[in-house]
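User: I'm putting together notes for a lab meeting next week and I want to include a structural view of one of the chains we've been expressing. I don't have a solved structure, so I'd like a prediction I can at least talk through. The sequence is below, exactly as it appears in our construct file.
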Amino acid sequence: MRRIALLTGFLALLGTAAGPARADTIEVRDAALRAVEDGLVLDADFAFELTPRLAEVVANGVPLYFRVEFELTRRRWYWFDERSASSLMQMRLSYHALSRHYRLSTGLQQQNLLQQNFATLEEALNVLKRVRNWLVVDRTVAFSRSDYEAAVRMRLDTTLLPKPFQLSALTGRELHLESPWKRFVVRSPQQLPAPVESREPKRPEER
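Assistant: Thanks for the context. Below is the predicted structure for the 207-residue chain, given as structure tokens.
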């Protein structure tokens, strides 16, 4: 009977381990590249929940910085892989107590920031988890006829937290949130849409 009880407990432990994902893990649900006039854009969906500690931190006025990283490489059996393109997107999630709203700021440069306000944390996170129309490869990048490997990941940048929180991040997982790299093959992205030509009517003196 004791062996059966031990076996039952062990199987229950395995079931728990194979259950829900860890709270400090981001899952890359889907990722795909699309060709547009300016180059290649990325659409990606992420799945995660803030740990109770992170939700408390942002509610107390400390902004959280998320980084979405993208790489495009060409595999070479005879040498090191060639990195053809790389891009970085930064998203800043903050809470403003006076107006009682959450703000999501997207972009690396102040003049190019896209700012959106939300009434709840859930609404802000729903937008943060969905990356759409992100230009990751400019049309000026030259491609060969080979297949390429694309990779994308998201993580919370703990280096931008205040110093006391950075110290806490060194000793625990409550302030960590990151995904592994999701990799997928891009089939010969050599052919990109041609730029749209201007169709403005000519002036009388030019005719």
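A couple of points you could mention at the meeting. Confidence is low (pLDDT under 50) at residues 1-21, 194-199. Strands lie at 27-36, 39-47, 64-74, 82-96, 101-106, 114-118, 130-138, 148-156, 182-186.

User: Perfect, that's what I needed.
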